[in-house]
UniProtKB/TrEMBL annotation:
Transmembrane segments: none
Transcription regulation found in the keyword field: yes
Domain HTH lacI-type, chain residue ranges per copy: 4-59
Record's protein name: LacI family transcriptional regulator
Native source species: Kribbella pratensis
Length: 341
């Protein structure tokens, strides 16, 4: 009968092989007690006997990196927000001699992709994995971290009792810089269009915007600044007649909605109201919005470098990294109209 291997222990315990390797070698500093007990129970049940080769498992890598998206990105990836991330991931992995595996068998009937199926972590096929997607399962992130699996996440994710290593677009600084640039053009009265999206990336945008408004002594009486989403007809009337000269919108959709509402009232952008957007312009034809752009390809490359650093030094504490966003000039910002100065 074939002797059990560390991979068998990992499968039975529902953890990564790196976690098994750490426990059997006595390196348990970052392994939760509950995970240790599961591993020891699996070792006992299988009759696994550690040996020198097993203890060095972490040094036996297959140079295979995983990519897991929490929602499907194909067949529309080319038009999708994630396409350039994937380009950067592929490009950098090829440059440094790693192969990639895209995990797709993790899909479920509701369209979501799960990491753990029947207690087994499918990502164990790879040395480590880049995770991305808006529909992140925080419970699975926490379990991955506690199991000792090596990964990095594109985008900031806050998870209780876990330090998720992330590559983070710096929306806070970008929003601050955008407001500062508007103030330097003479704008003092602002309005904020809030999308209602409850994600860290949007919380960061709001934090950066608020910090700049308060630091520069600017004025914002908008519902969005108070955390109220959507753009109502009542607030459109207020914008048409009030002191506001600059609007910052979280999404292009909100900016387009504003443009349409102003046109009905005989007003235009930027002649009557300057508008900047806290996301990229997308592929849709229309206004060339002044906006921020996430360097998605660069972030994909950085994610691979960060993951490989973790794979090669698994005992080092994971570190998150901020990546600056670019402010791109369009056709929607001008000096305040003289009628409102």
């Amino acid at each position: 009968m074939k002797a059990p291997r560390q991979s068998d222990v990992a499968r039975l315990a529902g953890v990564s092989q790196s976690a098994v390797s750490r426990v059997v070698s006595g390196d348990i500093d970052r392994i939760p007690a509950e995970t240790q007990e599961r591993i020891r129970a699996a070792v006992k049940e299988l009759g696994y006997v550690p040996n020198a080769a097993a203890r060095n498992l972490r040094n036996k890598r297959n140079r295979l990196l995983g990519v897991h998206t929490f929602e499907a990105v194909f067949p529309h990836a080319r038009e999708d927000f994630y396409f350039e991330f994937l380009l950067g991931i592929e490009e950098r992995a090829e440059e440094i001699g790693y192969d990639l595996v895209l995990f797709t068998s993790t899909g479920t009937s509701d369209g979501r992709r799960r990491i753990y199926r029947n207690g087994t972590n499918r990502l164990n096929l790879a040395d480590g994995t880049v995770l991305l997607g808006a529909a992140t399962d925080r419970e699975e992130l926490a379990r991955l971290w506690h199991d000792g699996y090596l990964f990095v996440h594109i985008g900031r994710r806050e998870v209780a009792d876990a330090e998720i290593p992330c590559i983070i677009p710096d929306y806070v600084s970008a929003a601050d810089r955008l407001v500062t640039s508007l103030a330097e053009r003479g704008h003092q009265h602002f309005a904020y269009l809030h999308s209602g999206i409850d994600q860290e990336a949007y919380a960061d945008r709001r934090a950066g915007y608020r910090a700049a408004i308060e630091r520069l002594g600017l004025h914002d009486r908008s519902p969005g600044f108070r955390g109220e989403p959507e753009l109502t007809e009542e607030w459109l009337d207020e914008l048409a007649s009030g002191p506001e000269t600059a609007v910052v919108a979280e999404t292009v959709g909100l900016a387009e909605q504003l443009r349409t509402g102003l046109a009905v009232r005989g007003l235009s952008i930027p002649a009557d109201l300057s508008v900047a957007v806290l996301e990229g312009p997308g592929n849709e034809a229309g206004h060339r919005w002044d906006c921020l752009v996430v360097p998605r390809k660069e972030i994909g490359r950085i994610a691979i470098d960060a993951l490989v650093a973790r794979v090669e030094n698994p005992d080092e504490e994971p570190v998150s990294r901020l990546v600056a966003c670019e402010l791109v000039a369009g056709e929607t910002v001008a000096a305040p109209p003289q009628s409102k100065e």
